[in-house]
UniProtKB/TrEMBL annotation:
Keyword Transport found: no
Residue stretches making up the Pyridoxamine kinase/Phosphomethylpyrimidine kinase domain: 13-261
Pathway the protein acts in: Cofactor biosynthesis; thiamine diphosphate biosynthesis; 4-amino-2-methyl-5-diphosphomethylpyrimidine from 5-amino-1-(5-phospho-D-ribosyl)imidazole: step 3/3
The protein's name in its UniProt record: Bifunctional hydroxymethylpyrimidine kinase/phosphomethylpyrimidine kinase
Length: 268
């Protein structure tokens, strides 16, 4: 019997590399039982997003209420929400159900450049959802958008922005540095009352980085109930992701930017 039920509240990526499909794979890879609340549909392949179809906010809330009135949930990962209405409904239901270990990946734009959150929803994300998050995991463009300032260009600026993001109310911020140039990919974890922690991994030279943010945040959500603290969950999740990137070229899911290898530890 699996000890942990982890829920992904996120969008669907039919190509399987990001969104709820990636989240379920990452949950499973970490020995957790995955559940989903579908918050948006996309038409998407490794070459990009060709369409977004929102789910009515009341039906997203209905999925949450139905699931949480039955199952015990040990952690939650929130990803693509698409609209302000869905963002508000998810934030409200998280509060109403008192969900534990809430990891928010504030998905705004895919690596292909396609917009996944309508611009008018950024305020709801900032003011309604972030205060309910135990951990928020923006990449550099998302952090800049949330703060309304230019993207951090070095580690010092990343530290400053991570601390300013804490002021929106999450208990911790993991600012991801994959978009900075350099031999290493460095992410910074800050939390109220503790010293910042840097997580550094060698940059893997692969084109197949689709879904790295989804995979990292869902791995952290799966590990939080299994680890003594957030830093330990982040460190183990990043090590898993780095290996998934090293083995990414073994998967052939299309002709564009492909997925990471979620099951690198099992498939020989
Ligand atoms: N080529 C790479 N090699 C190793 N780690 C990477 C690589 N690209 C991104 N990462 C790591 O993947 C995670 C997500 O990356 P990032 O690109 O910053 O966010 P997103 O996928 O949301 O755009 C971070 O831990 C980052 O350091
Ligand atoms: C449905 C869906 N959700 C999220 C994303 C973005 O995922 P992310 O992990 O940030 O990866 P990239 O798109 O940046 O490669 C998505 N594309 N689709």
């Amino acid at each position: 019997m699996s000890a942990y039920n982890i829920v992904s509240i996120a969008g669907s990526d039919p190509s399987g590399g990001a969104g709820i499909q990636a989240d379920l794979k990452a949950f499973s890879a970490h020995g957790a039982f995955g559940m989903t609340v579908v918050a948006a549909l996309t038409a998407q392949s490794t070459r990009g997003v060709t369409g977004v179809h929102p789910i009515p906010a009341d039906f997203v809330a209905h999925q949450m209420d139905t699931l949480f009135s039955d199952a015990t949930v040990h952690a939650v990962k929130v990803g693509m929400l698409g609209t302000a209405e869905v963002t508000e409904a998810v934030a409200e239901a998280i509060g109403r159900h008192g969900l534990p270990h809430v990891v928010v990946d504030p998905v705004m734009v895919a690596k292909s450049g396609d917009r996944l959150l309508e611009p008018s929803a950024v305020d709801a994300l900032r003011t309604r959802l972030l205060p309910r998050a135990d951990l928020v995991t923006p990449n550099l463009p998302e952090a800049a958008d949330l703060l309304g300032e230019p993207e951090a260009a070095d580690l010092a600026a990343m530290h400053e922005q991570a601390l300013r993001l804490l002021e929106f109310g999450p208990r911790a911020v993991l600012l991801k540095g994959g978009h900075l140039a350099g031999e290493d990919c460095v992410d910074i974890l800050v939390a109220q009352g503790s010293a910042p922690v840097e997580f550094r991994s060698p940059r893997v030279r692969t084109r197949n980085t689709h879904g790295t943010g989804c995979t990292l945040s869902s791995s952290i959500a799966a590990l939080l109930p299994q680890r003594p603290d957030t830093a330990s969950a982040v460190g183990d999740a990043k090590a898993y992701l780095t290996e998934a990137l090293r083995r990414a070229d073994e998967i052939d899911a299309g002709g564009g930017q492909g997925p990471v290898h979620h099951f690198h530890a099992w498939w020989k």
